């Protein structure tokens, strides 16, 4: 189902949308605007998922063991050394 709606565009937005239609990339201005709304919805959904994932990560980190900077450096050095060995590179 589609709903008719009146929207206002700046001159620049209208020119851009019209150019897309004239170039044959979209069949109408409505199609351009529908695509724009769909892309905005996808971006907002993606941002919400990323925010939820970051909140979960932070929550897990708060519940987990604290690792001081020196220990983290040692862990990273160990990981790098192991990967270098796995690829046949000197440590």
Low-confidence stretches: none
Helix content: over 70%
Helix and strand element order: HHH
Give the structural class: mainly alpha
| Largest sheet, strands/sense/barrel | none
Strand content: under 5%
What multimeric state do the chains show? single chain
The number of helices is 3
Radius of gyration: 25 Å
Tell me how many strands there are. Answer: 0
**Overall 3D shape:** elongated
Output mean pLDDT: 94
Q: Termini separation (Å)?
A: 63 Å
Descriptive notes:
By secondary structure, the chain is an all-alpha fold. The protein is 71% helix and 0% strand. It contains 3 helices and no strands. 2% of the residues are buried.
Q: Any chance you could write out the topology, listing elements then pairs?
A:
Elements: H1 11-22, H2 29-63, H3 69-86
């Amino acid at each position: 189902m589609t709903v008719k709606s009146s929207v206002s565009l700046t001159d620049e937005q209208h020119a851009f949308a019209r150019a897309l239609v004239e170039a044959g990339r979209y069949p109408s201005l409505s199609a351009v605007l529908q695509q724009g709304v769909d892309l905005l919805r996808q971006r907002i959904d993606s941002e919400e998922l990323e925010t939820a994932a970051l909140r979960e990560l932070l929550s897990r980190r708060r519940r987990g063991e604290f690792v001081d900077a020196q220990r983290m450096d040692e862990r990273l050095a160990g990981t790098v050394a192991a990967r270098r060995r796995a690829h046949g590179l000197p440590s």
